C-alpha cells in the first residue's frame, strides 16, 4: 500500500465539496421533503440523497479502494485504510426553509484518525478546511478560536436532536445552562456551529445526539483552530455528548453539563 498524503485527501475533498455544494445550492429553491426518518420533523430531501450520491461517486472514482460512511446510507467498504465521512447537507431544515446555514461536510480518516476535513457553506460563500497538524482555514485565511472567557461571559452554541423525548431532556439541560452563560445560539447546522467556534464567532458549543458525519470534518477545523473537542470524562466526541471550547472554558462547560444528564434522554 502506498503512503497516503493527507494534503492530497484534502484537495480531493475540497474539489468534491465545491461541486456538491454547487449542486445543492442549485436545487435549494425547488426542494421539498422526500421522506422522514426518526420522527416527522427529521426530514430528508431528494437533494440530501443526490448530493451524497455525487460525493460518493466522485470520491470512489478518484480512490476506488476507499470506504465511505454517509448520513443517507451511501456506505462503501474499502481496503485502502482511508474512510470518508460525509454529511451531504448538514442543516437540512435550514436548507428546506431557504436559509443559508447549511453545509457540505467531508472528512478523511486514515487508520481511524481524521486527518483532513472540509465544510463548504455555498449559500454563505464560505469554505472551511483543516489538516491535522496543518491548521484550520476559512477561504484560505487561518482561523483561531477566541481566547477562553469565564463561562458566565460565554456565547454558547448548541443544537437539538429530532426526537421528542430527547427534546424534553434537552430543554431541561438548556434551562440549567441558559442562566449561567452570556447567551445561547442555535444556528441549525452542527458543522457550522463548530466552524463558528473555530472562527471566534461563539465561545463554546455542546450538543447531544450527533453522529460522526455531523462532527468529523468540523471538529478537526475547531481543534486545529485551538479548541478542545470531546465528550464527558475524557471521552472523544461521541453521540452521547460533544463539547467544544478553548481549554479552560471546555472544563467549565464540561463540569456544568456533567451532572445534568446532558448525555442521557432523561
Ligand atoms: C442536524 C443539524 C442540527 C443538529 C442535529 C443534526 P442534519 O443535521 O446539524 O444542527 O442539531 O443534531 O442532526 O440532519 O441537518 O444533517
Ligand atoms: Ca439529517
Ligand atoms: Ca448533520
Ligand atoms: Ca445531513
What characterizes the major β-sheet?
Answer: 7 strands, mixed
> How far from one another are the termini?
47 Å
Determine the CATH superfamily of the largest domain: Fructose-1,6-Bisphosphatase, subunit A, domain 1
Task: Give the tally of β-strands.
Answer: 14
Provide the residue-averaged pLDDT.
95
How much of the sequence is in beta strands? Answer: 25-35%
Name the CATH class of the largest domain.
Alpha Beta
Give the low-pLDDT segments.
Answer: none
Categorize the overall geometry: globular
Quaternary state of the chains: single chain
Please give the domain count.
2
**Roughly how many Å is the radius of gyration?**
18 Å
Present as ligands are: D-MYO-inositol-1-phosphate, calcium ion
Structure write-up:
With 266 residues, this protein is α+β, with helices and mostly antiparallel strands. The chain folds into two domains: 6-142, Fructose-1,6-Bisphosphatase, Chain A, domain 1 (2-Layer Sandwich); 151-258, D-Maltodextrin-Binding Protein, domain 2, CATH 3.40.190. 33% of the residues lie in helices and 25% in strands. The strands form three sheets. It has a seven-stranded mixed sheet, sandwiched between helices. A five-stranded mixed sheet has the order 11-10-12-14-13, with helices on both faces. A hairpin with a 6-residue loop joins strand 1 (33-36) and strand 2 (43-45). Helix 5 (190-198) runs parallel beside helix 6. The N and C termini lie far apart (47 Å). 48% of the residues are buried. The model has no long low-confidence stretch (mean pLDDT 95).
Amino acid at each position: 500500500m502506498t503512503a497516503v498524503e493527507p494534503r492530497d485527501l484534502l484537495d480531493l475533498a475540497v474539489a468534491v465539496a465545491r461541486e456538491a455544494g454547487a449542486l445543492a445550492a442549485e436545487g435549494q429553491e425547488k426542494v421539498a421533503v422526500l421522506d422522514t426518518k426518526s420522527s416527522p420533523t427529521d426530514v430528508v430531501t431528494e437533494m440530501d440523497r443526490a448530493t451524497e450520491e455525487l460525493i460518493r461517486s466522485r470520491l470512489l472514482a478518484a480512490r476506488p479502494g476507499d470506504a465511505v460512511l454517509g448520513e443517507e446510507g451511501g456506505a462503501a467498504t474499502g481496503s485502502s485504510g482511508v474512510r470518508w465521512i460525509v454529511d451531504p447537507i448538514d442543516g437540512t431544515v435550514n436548507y428546506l426553509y431557504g436559509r443559508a446555514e447549511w453545509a457540505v461536510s467531508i472528512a478523511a480518516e486514515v487508520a481511524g484518525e481524521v486527518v483532513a476535513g472540509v465544510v463548504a457553506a455555498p449559500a454563505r460563500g464560505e469554505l472551511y478546511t483543516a489538516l491535522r497538524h496543518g491548521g484550520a482555514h476559512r477561504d484560505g485565511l487561518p482561523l483561531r478560536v477566541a481566547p477562553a472567557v469565564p463561562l458566565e461571559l460565554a456565547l454558547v452554541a448548541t443544537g437539538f436532536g429530532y426526537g421528542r423525548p430527547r427534546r424534553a431532556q434537552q430543554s431541561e439541560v438548556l434551562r440549567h445552562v441558559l442562566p449561567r452563560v452570556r447567551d445561547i445560539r442555535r444556528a441549525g447546522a452542527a458543522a457550522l456551529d463548530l466552524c463558528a467556534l473555530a472562527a471566534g464567532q461563539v465561545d463554546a458549543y455542546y450538543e447531544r445526539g450527533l453522529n460522526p458525519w455531523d462532527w468529523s470534518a468540523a471538529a478537526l477545523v475547531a481543534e486545529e483552530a485551538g479548541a478542545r473537542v470531546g465528550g464527558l470524562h475524557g471521552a472523544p466526541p461521541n453521540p452521547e455528548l460533544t463539547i467544544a471550547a478553548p481549554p479552560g472554558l471546555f472544563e467549565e462547560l464540561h463540569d456544568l453539563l456533567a451532572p445534568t444528564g446532558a448525555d442521557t434522554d432523561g
